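ugh ok fine here u go
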Amino acid sequence: MSGAFGYDRERGLFHVFRARAVVLATGGIGKAYQITSNSWEYTGDGHVLAYDAGAELMDMEFVQFHPTGMIWPPSQTADTEEEGFRYTQGDKDARRPPELLTRDHVARCIVREIKEGRGSPHGGVFLDISWLKRRLPNAREHIKKKLPSMYHQFLKLADIDITEQPMEVGPTTHYMMGGVRVHPETQMSTVPGLFAAGECAAGLHGANRLGGNSLSDLLVFGQRAGQAAARFAKENRANSIDEAQVETAARQALLPFEDGTGTGKDGGPFQVQQDLQKTMQDLVGIVRTESEMAHALDALSLFRSRSARIRIGGNRAYNPAWHTALDLRNLLTVSEAITRAALERKESRGAHFRDDFPEKDPAAGRFNVIVFRDGAGAMRVRREPVAEMPAHLKQVIEEMK
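structure:
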Protein backbone atom coordinates (compact mmCIF):
# COMPACT_ATOMS: atom_id res chain seq x y z
CA MET A 1 0.00 0.00 0.00
CA SER A 2 1.53 3.28 -1.10
CA GLY A 3 -1.41 5.68 -1.31
CA ALA A 4 -4.43 6.47 -3.47
CA PHE A 5 -5.36 8.06 -6.79
CA GLY A 6 -8.45 10.23 -7.15
CA TYR A 7 -9.99 13.18 -8.95
CA ASP A 8 -11.66 16.49 -8.11
CA ARG A 9 -15.29 16.35 -9.26
CA GLU A 10 -15.64 20.12 -9.64
CA ARG A 11 -12.55 20.76 -11.73
CA GLY A 12 -11.72 17.29 -13.03
CA LEU A 13 -8.14 17.41 -11.77
CA PHE A 14 -6.32 14.21 -10.78
CA HIS A 15 -4.61 13.83 -7.41
CA VAL A 16 -2.14 11.31 -5.99
CA PHE A 17 -2.17 10.81 -2.21
CA ARG A 18 0.96 9.26 -0.73
CA ALA A 19 0.22 7.24 2.41
CA ARG A 20 1.60 4.31 4.35
CA ALA A 21 -1.92 3.24 5.30
CA VAL A 22 -5.35 3.88 3.77
CA VAL A 23 -8.74 3.70 5.51
CA LEU A 24 -11.80 3.15 3.31
CA ALA A 25 -15.07 4.62 4.63
CA THR A 26 -17.09 5.03 1.46
CA GLY A 27 -20.52 3.69 2.46
CA GLY A 28 -22.69 1.27 0.56
CA ILE A 29 -23.89 0.17 -2.86
CA GLY A 30 -27.47 1.46 -3.02
CA LYS A 31 -27.17 3.12 -6.43
CA ALA A 32 -26.79 -0.32 -8.01
CA TYR A 33 -30.56 -0.65 -7.48
CA GLN A 34 -33.48 1.21 -9.01
CA ILE A 35 -35.10 2.17 -5.70
CA THR A 36 -32.82 3.16 -2.84
CA SER A 37 -32.73 5.36 0.24
CA ASN A 38 -29.00 5.91 -0.33
CA SER A 39 -27.41 9.12 -1.51
CA TRP A 40 -25.94 9.57 -5.00
CA GLU A 41 -22.39 8.66 -3.96
CA TYR A 42 -23.25 5.13 -2.75
CA THR A 43 -21.76 3.39 -5.78
CA GLY A 44 -19.59 0.75 -4.11
CA ASP A 45 -16.36 2.71 -4.60
CA GLY A 46 -14.62 1.41 -1.47
CA HIS A 47 -15.65 -2.18 -2.15
CA VAL A 48 -14.15 -2.06 -5.63
CA LEU A 49 -11.01 -0.13 -4.64
CA ALA A 50 -10.27 -2.88 -2.12
CA TYR A 51 -11.19 -5.67 -4.54
CA ASP A 52 -8.93 -4.22 -7.25
CA ALA A 53 -6.08 -3.96 -4.73
CA GLY A 54 -6.39 -7.69 -4.01
CA ALA A 55 -8.54 -7.59 -0.87
CA GLU A 56 -11.31 -10.10 -0.29
CA LEU A 57 -15.00 -9.20 -0.02
CA MET A 58 -17.37 -11.07 2.30
CA ASP A 59 -21.15 -11.49 2.80
CA MET A 60 -21.95 -9.63 -0.42
CA GLU A 61 -25.25 -11.52 -0.78
CA PHE A 62 -26.71 -9.74 2.26
CA VAL A 63 -28.40 -6.53 1.06
CA GLN A 64 -31.01 -5.02 3.35
CA PHE A 65 -34.24 -3.62 1.90
CA HIS A 66 -36.28 -1.23 4.02
CA PRO A 67 -40.01 -1.84 3.50
CA THR A 68 -41.37 1.64 4.41
CA GLY A 69 -44.84 0.13 4.21
CA MET A 70 -47.07 -2.36 5.97
CA ILE A 71 -48.79 -5.61 5.11
CA TRP A 72 -51.07 -7.75 7.23
CA PRO A 73 -50.08 -11.48 7.29
CA PRO A 74 -52.88 -12.77 9.54
CA SER A 75 -51.13 -15.64 11.28
CA GLN A 76 -48.12 -13.74 12.60
CA THR A 77 -49.36 -10.35 13.73
CA ALA A 78 -52.03 -8.56 15.68
CA ASP A 79 -55.53 -9.62 14.63
CA THR A 80 -57.01 -6.16 14.91
CA GLU A 81 -56.07 -2.50 14.80
CA GLU A 82 -56.95 -2.36 18.50
CA GLU A 83 -54.44 -5.11 19.40
CA GLY A 84 -51.74 -3.51 17.25
CA PHE A 85 -52.22 -0.16 18.95
CA ARG A 86 -52.04 -1.77 22.40
CA TYR A 87 -48.71 -3.38 21.41
CA THR A 88 -47.25 0.00 20.48
CA GLN A 89 -48.32 1.36 23.88
CA GLY A 90 -46.40 -1.36 25.75
CA ASP A 91 -49.07 -4.04 26.32
CA LYS A 92 -46.99 -7.24 26.65
CA ASP A 93 -50.06 -9.43 26.04
CA ALA A 94 -50.71 -7.91 22.61
CA ARG A 95 -49.02 -9.26 19.49
CA ARG A 96 -46.95 -6.84 17.46
CA PRO A 97 -48.47 -5.16 14.40
CA PRO A 98 -46.99 -6.11 11.01
CA GLU A 99 -45.10 -2.87 10.45
CA LEU A 100 -42.88 -3.90 13.38
CA LEU A 101 -41.85 -7.22 11.85
CA THR A 102 -38.26 -7.44 10.62
CA ARG A 103 -37.55 -5.26 7.62
CA ASP A 104 -36.74 -8.11 5.27
CA HIS A 105 -39.97 -9.95 6.17
CA VAL A 106 -42.21 -6.96 5.54
CA ALA A 107 -40.34 -6.08 2.34
CA ARG A 108 -40.85 -9.63 0.98
CA CYS A 109 -44.55 -9.48 1.84
CA ILE A 110 -44.90 -6.22 -0.06
CA VAL A 111 -43.14 -7.70 -3.10
CA ARG A 112 -45.49 -10.68 -2.97
CA GLU A 113 -48.53 -8.40 -2.90
CA ILE A 114 -47.23 -6.44 -5.87
CA LYS A 115 -46.37 -9.56 -7.90
CA GLU A 116 -49.82 -11.00 -7.25
CA GLY A 117 -51.48 -7.90 -8.64
CA ARG A 118 -52.51 -6.16 -5.44
CA GLY A 119 -50.01 -3.32 -5.60
CA SER A 120 -50.60 0.40 -5.89
CA PRO A 121 -50.69 2.20 -9.26
CA HIS A 122 -46.95 2.95 -9.30
CA GLY A 123 -45.75 -0.49 -8.26
CA GLY A 124 -45.79 -0.07 -4.49
CA VAL A 125 -48.37 -0.34 -1.73
CA PHE A 126 -50.37 2.17 0.28
CA LEU A 127 -49.31 3.04 3.82
CA ASP A 128 -52.03 4.72 5.89
CA ILE A 129 -51.19 6.13 9.32
CA SER A 130 -54.09 8.58 9.44
CA TRP A 131 -56.06 6.12 11.61
CA LEU A 132 -54.03 7.38 14.57
CA LYS A 133 -56.42 10.33 14.83
CA ARG A 134 -58.99 7.88 16.16
CA ARG A 135 -56.59 6.91 18.96
CA LEU A 136 -54.70 10.07 19.85
CA PRO A 137 -56.23 13.50 20.45
CA ASN A 138 -53.18 15.25 18.97
CA ALA A 139 -52.50 12.71 16.24
CA ARG A 140 -51.64 15.28 13.56
CA GLU A 141 -48.89 16.90 15.62
CA HIS A 142 -47.73 13.49 16.86
CA ILE A 143 -47.20 12.24 13.28
CA LYS A 144 -45.43 15.43 12.21
CA LYS A 145 -43.11 15.18 15.21
CA LYS A 146 -42.29 11.49 14.68
CA LEU A 147 -42.02 11.62 10.87
CA PRO A 148 -41.01 15.20 9.98
CA SER A 149 -39.08 14.43 6.79
CA MET A 150 -41.71 12.01 5.48
CA TYR A 151 -44.46 14.52 6.20
CA HIS A 152 -42.56 17.28 4.39
CA GLN A 153 -41.55 15.08 1.45
CA PHE A 154 -45.04 13.82 0.63
CA LEU A 155 -46.63 17.24 1.17
CA LYS A 156 -44.17 19.11 -1.05
CA LEU A 157 -43.58 16.55 -3.79
CA ALA A 158 -46.94 14.77 -4.00
CA ASP A 159 -49.35 17.22 -2.33
CA ILE A 160 -50.30 14.45 0.10
CA ASP A 161 -50.92 15.10 3.79
CA ILE A 162 -49.94 11.82 5.46
CA THR A 163 -51.87 12.76 8.59
CA GLU A 164 -55.04 12.55 6.47
CA GLN A 165 -54.26 10.42 3.39
CA PRO A 166 -52.53 7.12 2.52
CA MET A 167 -49.08 7.37 0.99
CA GLU A 168 -47.71 5.12 -1.75
CA VAL A 169 -44.52 3.39 -0.65
CA GLY A 170 -42.42 0.36 -1.54
CA PRO A 171 -39.28 -1.53 -0.53
CA THR A 172 -36.06 0.38 -1.00
CA THR A 173 -32.43 -0.73 -0.99
CA HIS A 174 -31.24 0.52 2.37
CA TYR A 175 -28.04 -1.04 3.71
CA MET A 176 -25.22 -3.36 2.69
CA MET A 177 -24.12 -5.90 5.30
CA GLY A 178 -21.38 -7.24 3.05
CA GLY A 179 -18.13 -5.52 2.22
CA VAL A 180 -14.38 -5.65 2.61
CA ARG A 181 -13.27 -8.58 4.73
CA VAL A 182 -11.43 -7.12 7.72
CA HIS A 183 -9.81 -8.21 10.96
CA PRO A 184 -12.32 -7.56 13.79
CA GLU A 185 -9.79 -5.90 16.08
CA THR A 186 -7.84 -3.75 13.61
CA GLN A 187 -10.22 -3.43 10.62
CA MET A 188 -7.30 -4.24 8.31
CA SER A 189 -8.22 -6.03 5.11
CA THR A 190 -6.38 -8.98 3.61
CA VAL A 191 -4.06 -6.40 1.99
CA PRO A 192 -1.51 -5.05 4.50
CA GLY A 193 -2.01 -1.34 5.12
CA LEU A 194 -5.54 -1.20 3.70
CA PHE A 195 -8.30 -0.73 6.29
CA ALA A 196 -12.07 -0.34 6.05
CA ALA A 197 -14.82 0.79 8.41
CA GLY A 198 -18.55 1.41 8.33
CA GLU A 199 -20.84 0.13 5.60
CA CYS A 200 -18.03 -0.76 3.19
CA ALA A 201 -16.60 -3.24 5.74
CA ALA A 202 -18.11 -6.66 6.40
CA GLY A 203 -18.51 -8.86 9.44
CA LEU A 204 -20.29 -6.91 12.14
CA HIS A 205 -23.93 -7.25 11.11
CA GLY A 206 -23.95 -10.79 9.76
CA ALA A 207 -26.94 -11.56 7.57
CA ASN A 208 -29.16 -8.69 8.70
CA ARG A 209 -28.40 -5.40 10.44
CA LEU A 210 -30.58 -4.31 13.36
CA GLY A 211 -32.01 -0.81 13.10
CA GLY A 212 -29.91 1.90 14.77
CA ASN A 213 -26.64 -0.06 14.71
CA SER A 214 -24.91 1.88 11.93
CA LEU A 215 -23.85 4.84 14.05
CA SER A 216 -22.37 2.66 16.78
CA ASP A 217 -20.61 0.66 14.05
CA LEU A 218 -18.99 3.83 12.69
CA LEU A 219 -17.99 5.16 16.09
CA VAL A 220 -16.46 1.96 17.43
CA PHE A 221 -14.92 0.43 14.34
CA GLY A 222 -14.03 3.74 12.74
CA GLN A 223 -11.92 4.46 15.80
CA ARG A 224 -10.34 1.00 15.65
CA ALA A 225 -9.52 1.45 11.98
CA GLY A 226 -7.97 4.86 12.53
CA GLN A 227 -5.87 3.76 15.47
CA ALA A 228 -4.68 0.60 13.73
CA ALA A 229 -3.87 2.51 10.53
CA ALA A 230 -1.85 5.04 12.54
CA ARG A 231 0.12 2.25 14.22
CA PHE A 232 0.72 0.55 10.88
CA ALA A 233 2.00 3.80 9.36
CA LYS A 234 4.41 4.33 12.24
CA GLU A 235 5.74 0.79 12.16
CA ASN A 236 6.20 0.42 8.38
CA ARG A 237 8.20 2.22 5.75
CA ALA A 238 6.52 4.13 2.97
CA ASN A 239 6.27 2.31 -0.34
CA SER A 240 7.14 4.16 -3.52
CA ILE A 241 4.33 5.20 -5.87
CA ASP A 242 4.17 3.13 -9.06
CA GLU A 243 4.02 5.85 -11.69
CA ALA A 244 2.96 3.36 -14.35
CA GLN A 245 -0.13 2.49 -12.30
CA VAL A 246 -0.97 6.17 -11.92
CA GLU A 247 -0.63 6.75 -15.67
CA THR A 248 -2.83 3.72 -16.43
CA ALA A 249 -5.52 4.89 -13.99
CA ALA A 250 -5.51 8.38 -15.50
CA ARG A 251 -5.69 7.03 -19.05
CA GLN A 252 -8.64 4.75 -18.18
CA ALA A 253 -10.46 7.60 -16.44
CA LEU A 254 -10.17 9.78 -19.55
CA LEU A 255 -11.21 7.06 -21.99
CA PRO A 256 -14.86 8.27 -22.22
CA PHE A 257 -13.56 11.53 -23.73
CA GLU A 258 -11.53 9.71 -26.36
CA ASP A 259 -13.26 10.97 -29.50
CA GLY A 260 -15.41 13.67 -27.92
CA THR A 261 -18.49 12.74 -30.00
CA GLY A 262 -20.84 12.15 -27.09
CA THR A 263 -23.15 9.17 -26.65
CA GLY A 264 -23.43 6.45 -29.24
CA LYS A 265 -25.90 3.71 -30.09
CA ASP A 266 -25.47 1.98 -26.70
CA GLY A 267 -26.86 5.00 -24.90
CA GLY A 268 -25.03 7.30 -22.55
CA PRO A 269 -23.82 6.48 -19.05
CA PHE A 270 -27.17 7.42 -17.50
CA GLN A 271 -29.04 4.93 -19.68
CA VAL A 272 -26.59 2.13 -18.88
CA GLN A 273 -26.90 2.89 -15.18
CA GLN A 274 -30.70 2.87 -15.37
CA ASP A 275 -30.69 -0.48 -17.18
CA LEU A 276 -28.29 -1.90 -14.59
CA GLN A 277 -30.43 -0.65 -11.71
CA LYS A 278 -33.61 -2.14 -13.17
CA THR A 279 -31.89 -5.49 -13.72
CA MET A 280 -30.62 -5.66 -10.14
CA GLN A 281 -33.99 -4.54 -8.74
CA ASP A 282 -35.92 -7.13 -10.76
CA LEU A 283 -33.54 -10.10 -10.76
CA VAL A 284 -31.28 -9.80 -7.68
CA GLY A 285 -33.60 -7.92 -5.37
CA ILE A 286 -35.65 -8.93 -2.36
CA VAL A 287 -36.76 -12.33 -3.69
CA ARG A 288 -34.15 -14.29 -5.66
CA THR A 289 -34.01 -17.43 -7.80
CA GLU A 290 -31.14 -19.19 -9.57
CA SER A 291 -32.59 -18.71 -13.05
CA GLU A 292 -33.16 -14.97 -12.57
CA MET A 293 -29.71 -14.39 -11.12
CA ALA A 294 -28.09 -16.36 -13.95
CA HIS A 295 -29.94 -14.08 -16.35
CA ALA A 296 -28.65 -11.09 -14.34
CA LEU A 297 -25.05 -12.23 -14.81
CA ASP A 298 -25.57 -12.36 -18.57
CA ALA A 299 -27.07 -8.88 -18.49
CA LEU A 300 -24.18 -7.53 -16.40
CA SER A 301 -21.74 -8.80 -19.01
CA LEU A 302 -23.63 -6.89 -21.70
CA PHE A 303 -23.73 -3.75 -19.55
CA ARG A 304 -19.97 -3.99 -19.05
CA SER A 305 -19.47 -4.11 -22.82
CA ARG A 306 -21.78 -1.13 -23.30
CA SER A 307 -19.99 0.76 -20.53
CA ALA A 308 -16.62 0.26 -22.22
CA ARG A 309 -17.98 1.85 -25.41
CA ILE A 310 -19.43 4.95 -23.73
CA ARG A 311 -18.19 8.25 -25.15
CA ILE A 312 -19.14 11.62 -23.71
CA GLY A 313 -18.77 15.24 -24.73
CA GLY A 314 -17.91 18.34 -22.74
CA ASN A 315 -14.83 18.86 -20.61
CA ARG A 316 -13.51 17.59 -17.28
CA ALA A 317 -14.89 20.43 -15.15
CA TYR A 318 -18.00 19.33 -13.28
CA ASN A 319 -19.39 16.85 -15.79
CA PRO A 320 -22.09 14.50 -14.41
CA ALA A 321 -21.91 12.25 -17.48
CA TRP A 322 -18.20 11.64 -16.88
CA HIS A 323 -18.79 11.01 -13.18
CA THR A 324 -21.47 8.44 -13.99
CA ALA A 325 -19.26 6.78 -16.61
CA LEU A 326 -16.56 6.37 -13.94
CA ASP A 327 -19.09 5.11 -11.38
CA LEU A 328 -20.36 2.42 -13.74
CA ARG A 329 -17.33 0.18 -13.37
CA ASN A 330 -17.74 0.11 -9.60
CA LEU A 331 -21.49 -0.45 -9.84
CA LEU A 332 -21.01 -3.32 -12.28
CA THR A 333 -18.35 -4.94 -10.09
CA VAL A 334 -20.37 -4.82 -6.86
CA SER A 335 -23.46 -6.01 -8.75
CA GLU A 336 -21.56 -9.03 -10.02
CA ALA A 337 -20.22 -9.72 -6.52
CA ILE A 338 -23.73 -9.57 -5.02
CA THR A 339 -25.12 -11.88 -7.69
CA ARG A 340 -22.34 -14.48 -7.51
CA ALA A 341 -22.45 -14.56 -3.71
CA ALA A 342 -26.25 -14.90 -3.75
CA LEU A 343 -26.01 -17.80 -6.20
CA GLU A 344 -23.48 -19.52 -3.93
CA ARG A 345 -25.71 -19.29 -0.83
CA LYS A 346 -28.39 -21.88 -1.56
CA GLU A 347 -30.64 -21.09 1.38
CA SER A 348 -32.57 -18.16 2.85
CA ARG A 349 -30.96 -16.30 5.73
CA GLY A 350 -31.44 -12.79 7.08
CA ALA A 351 -31.86 -10.29 4.26
CA HIS A 352 -31.02 -12.94 1.61
CA PHE A 353 -34.16 -14.77 0.45
CA ARG A 354 -34.10 -17.50 -2.21
CA ASP A 355 -37.56 -18.44 -3.48
CA ASP A 356 -36.05 -21.73 -4.71
CA PHE A 357 -34.42 -22.36 -1.29
CA PRO A 358 -36.88 -20.72 1.14
CA GLU A 359 -35.58 -22.31 4.36
CA LYS A 360 -32.45 -21.86 6.42
CA ASP A 361 -29.81 -24.55 6.04
CA PRO A 362 -27.93 -25.10 9.35
CA ALA A 363 -24.85 -26.21 7.43
CA ALA A 364 -24.84 -22.96 5.44
CA GLY A 365 -24.80 -21.01 8.69
CA ARG A 366 -21.29 -22.30 9.30
CA PHE A 367 -19.63 -20.55 6.36
CA ASN A 368 -19.22 -17.10 4.84
CA VAL A 369 -19.15 -16.51 1.10
CA ILE A 370 -15.87 -14.87 0.07
CA VAL A 371 -15.50 -12.97 -3.22
CA PHE A 372 -11.99 -12.55 -4.59
CA ARG A 373 -10.08 -11.85 -7.77
CA ASP A 374 -8.05 -14.70 -9.23
CA GLY A 375 -4.68 -14.49 -10.94
CA ALA A 376 -6.30 -13.93 -14.33
CA GLY A 377 -8.44 -11.06 -13.03
CA ALA A 378 -11.72 -13.01 -12.97
CA MET A 379 -14.15 -12.82 -10.06
CA ARG A 380 -14.39 -16.00 -8.00
CA VAL A 381 -16.25 -17.10 -4.88
CA ARG A 382 -15.45 -19.64 -2.19
CA ARG A 383 -16.88 -20.77 1.12
CA GLU A 384 -14.91 -19.93 4.24
CA PRO A 385 -15.75 -21.71 7.53
CA VAL A 386 -16.97 -19.37 10.25
CA ALA A 387 -14.40 -19.17 13.04
CA GLU A 388 -15.28 -20.65 16.41
CA MET A 389 -16.76 -18.07 18.76
CA PRO A 390 -14.31 -17.06 21.52
CA ALA A 391 -15.14 -18.38 24.98
CA HIS A 392 -15.66 -14.92 26.50
CA LEU A 393 -18.29 -14.07 23.87
CA LYS A 394 -20.09 -17.36 24.42
CA GLN A 395 -20.21 -16.51 28.10
CA VAL A 396 -21.80 -13.13 27.38
CA ILE A 397 -24.48 -14.74 25.22
CA GLU A 398 -25.24 -17.36 27.88
CA GLU A 399 -25.55 -14.65 30.52
CA MET A 400 -28.06 -12.74 28.37
CA LYS A 401 -30.36 -15.74 27.82
